[in-house]
Design a protein that fits this description.
mainly alpha; 9 helices; globular
């Protein structure tokens, strides 16, 4: 079924329609069409924000997709802004030691570093390391990576 057919037949928030839009965004990315990729991913995020609960896993996951594309497109400042928004939501809905929250904070710290915001990167990484030290065994791969 094509994207056009999905638009004509399926509701805006239908999972199959969103999956098709995501697949098209990946195709755009593969073809080097970063602007179209980002626009389509942002559209999917907006739809999911309107129809899914703030803590829904699909909504949380989709919020990170555009930031990756901004970073890949050299728009590090935009990637940081997008990650900060997504992480603010995760901080409200996930426990402090939730692996997804920690992974998100780690990613943001790396983006801060890439954007020249070294002080912010260090502060956030120190926070992630402290939490992981308290919850993970000394030889756990995630603790070692942080």
């Amino acid at each position: 079924m094509s994207i056009t057919l999905h638009r004509n037949v399926l509701a805006e928030g239908h999972p199959d329609r969103l999956a098709s839009q995501y697949a098209l965004a990946v195709a755009y990315q593969t073809n080097g069409q970063m602007t179209k990729t980002i626009e389509l991913l942002e559209q999917v995020v907006t739809i999911r924000e309107n129809i899914l609960a703030e803590d829904h896993p699909d909504r949380l996951a989709s919020q990170f997709e555009p930031s990756r594309e901004y970073q890949a497109n050299g728009q590090v400042t935009k990637a940081v802004e997008h990650l900060e928004q997504a992480i603010a939501i995760r901080e409200n809905v996930l426990a402090e030691d939730h692996p997804d929250r920690l992974a998100s904070q780690y990613k943001l710290a790396r983006e801060y570093q890439a954007n020249g915001q070294v002080t912010k990167a260090v502060e956030l990484l120190e926070q992630v390391v402290a939490i992981r030290e308290n919850m993970l065994a000394e030889d756990h791969p995630d603790r070692l990576a942080s």
